[in-house]
Write a structure and sequence with these properties.
CATH class of the largest domain: Mainly Beta
Shape: elongated
Structural class: mainly beta
Strand content: over 45%
Strand order of the largest sheet: 4-8-5-6-7
CATH superfamily of the largest domain: Nucleic acid-binding proteins
Number of domains: 2
Largest sheet: 5 strands, antiparallel
CATH architecture of the largest domain: Beta Barrel
Helix content: under 10%
């Protein structure tokens, strides 16, 4: 989110940074997902695989099962665990409540 002026919990800041850990994003289904993106790197690590998705400014890293068939070039649907997301003040990176 990058509105010129955003209010969160009584604070006025120029930009909010959205944060979520790779393990708190999951593969969505055709009708149940928050967004989709193209895979540009896969990193197999044994019991898990990190997939790197094209983001607006930076890559987004998502953790999936180690035996996934996802490959570079695939479009994946992503479901976020919204209970585990964080908002940060872009000026000092403090967590907004």
């Amino acid at each position: 989110m990058s509105d010129p002026e955003t209010r969160v919990s009584g604070f006025q800041i120029a930009e909010i940074i959205f944060g979520i850990r790779p393990e708190d994003m999951h593969l969505g289904s055709d009708n149940d997902y928050h967004w989709q993106s193209k895979v540009f790197v896969t990193e197999k690590l044994g019991s898990s695989t990190f997939i790197y998705l094209e983001g607006e400014k930076e890559p987004i890293v998502m953790e999936v099962a180690g035996d996934t068939a996802i490959k570079v070039g695939d479009i994946v649907k992503v479901k976020l665990d919204l209970e585990k997301t964080h908002l940060f003040n872009s000026q000092n990176l403090s967590i907004l409540e």
